[in-house]
Design a protein that fits this description.
Number of domains: 1
CATH superfamily: Hypothetical protein
Strand content: 15-25%
Low-confidence stretches: none
Shape: globular
Number of helices: 3
Distance between the termini: 12 Å
Radius of gyration: 11 Å
Order of helices and strands: HEEEHH
């Protein structure tokens, strides 16, 4: 499984899943989605660690296979 970069994750989340960039602090981007109480923080690194990537998907309630198809 190819682990995407933080930029790729943010692009897919904003394009296909309705998340919008809420802010950026240092090397992290914060996303917000209408109707969601929680914010989603994505590290803006060249390559995410597998656990970090899966944690972002879990918090966004997105299946890994579904997400990877949209890359």
């Amino acid at each position: 499984m190819k682990i995407p970069s933080g930029l790729e994750v943010v692009k897919v989340l904003t394009k296909y899943y309705g998340w919008k960039i809420h802010g950026r602090e240092g090397s992290h981007v914060t996303l917000k989605k209408e109707g969601e109480m929680n914010l989603l923080t994505v590290p803006f690194h060249k390559q995410l660690k597998q656990g970090t990537f899966l944690a972002v998907l879990r918090k966004a309630k997105i299946e890994k296979e579904e997400f990877l198809q949209k890359l």
